[in-house]
Design a protein that fits this description.
The complex is a heterodimer of chains A (about 100) and B (about 220).
Chain A lengths: L1 E6 L1 H5 L3 E3 L5 H12 L2 E7 L4 E8 L2 E6 L1 E4 L2 E2 L10 E6 L5
Parallel strand pairs in A: 1-8
Antiparallel strand pairs in A: 1-2, 3-4, 4-5, 6-7, 6-8
Chain B lengths: L14 H6 L1 E5 L3 H13 L3 E5 L24 H12 L4 E5 L15 E4 L4 H14 L3 E7 L2 E7 L7 H5 L12 H19 L10 E6 L4 E6 L2
Helix pairs in contact in B: 2-3, 2-6
């Protein structure tokens, strides 16, 4: 499946998109980590329903709030992932 | 009286909208300052402003309605005073209130600008737009980056559907040009929506940009 990085996240990891084998979300992030050569995980904080990307680079852990769309739909609104496109979006929040 | 002869030919069909539309601007901070100045200079007559904050020194880097003499004063009151200097014939209603789930928005409203600084209030505006069946022009900024989209009940996903899961940062760094660009684009989108030019608008699209890298990208939503 195609994985797109949208917003500031693309500059942090240095790539706009890549292709990985379709699978579970954990499996997809494992594949992304392998392709990028850096550990990237996704976590959903169940108490707040907030989603984050955890990026480990050179022993340093960074956490960013993200939203993930699968074929145009927020994954928090979907029952299961579908093959196609996964957009990892780092929105901005100031006004 | 404001003379709009230098731009009215660009949006002739909007003449009556300028006089009759009631525009709701939520937030009179960075984005709100730019949006409000644009609206008044374009010739919009009826504007409603919600903001509960006073002007603080760190606001002056990007909140272009205010200056050093305004520190400590209510944003809504200063904003109205300055906007009326541009066009004294504007009808500007101000509300010094924090927008919450319990806020009652009364009166005629045709379009909402989301110029607030947190996702929770944005979702309240989203619900409000859906309840009234009116468009919400969403913008947000941080550092060198901005995002803009149009939420149109019945035509697009809701803001909640798009950004559910997002946690907005408190007091992020913001470069002033990022705010000026985003605020101006918000107003440009509103003109298209009022003109019913949906094809060229950011309906079912989000514009993300980063001025550090000169990266502007429109993402299509399904």
């Amino acid at each position: 499946m195609k994985v797109k990085f949208i917003g500031g996240i693309r500059y942090l990891i240095g790539i706009k998109e890549l292709e990985v084998e379709f699978g579970s979300l954990d499996g997809i992030f494992e594949s992304i980590s392998k392709k990028l050569g850096k550990k990237i995980n996704y976590t959903l904080e169940k108490e707040t329903n907030k989603s984050f990307l955890i990026l480990n680079e050179n022993g340093k852990e960074m956490k960013f709030s993200v939203v993930i769309h699968n074929n145009g739909e927020n994954i928090l609104k979907k029952e299961k992932l579908e093959n196609g496109e996964l957009s990892i979006i780092m929105p901005v929040g100031g006004g | 009286m404001l003379d709009i002869s230098r731009h009215i030919d660009l949006y002739k069909k909007l003449s009556d909208k300028l006089n009759n539309s009631h525009i709701f601007v939520a937030g009179a901070g960075g984005l709100g300052s730019v949006v409000l100045q644009n609206l008044v200079r374009l010739g919009f007559k009826n504007i409603i402003i919600y903001d509960h904050k006073e002007i603080d020194p760190p606001d002056l880097n990007r909140q272009i309605l205010y200056d050093s003499k305004d520190i400590g004063k209510k944003k809504t009151l200063v904003a109205r005073k300055k906007l009326l200097k541009i066009n004294p014939l504007c009808n500007i209603k101000v509300f010094e209130e924090k927008i919450t789930k319990n806020t009652k928005f009364n009166g005629k409203i045709d379009l909402i600008f989301d110029c607030v600084d947190n996702i929770e209030t944005r979702f309240i505006l989203d619900e409000f737009a859906h309840r009234l069946n009116i468009p919400l022009i969403h913008g947000a900024v941080q550092e060198y980056r901005g995002q803009i989209t149009v939420i149109y009940p019945g035509k697009t996903k809701s803001l909640r559907e798009l950004f559910l899961g997002y946690s907005s940062p408190k007091n992020p760094q913001v470069l002033p040009p990022t705010v000026f660009i985003t605020g101006s684009l918000l107003v440009s989108e509103a003109l298209k929506i009022l003109n019913k030019d949906f094809e060229n608008s950011l309906i079912n699209k989000i514009l993300f940009f980063d001025i550090f890298y000169n990266d502007f990208e429109v993402i299509k939503l399904k």
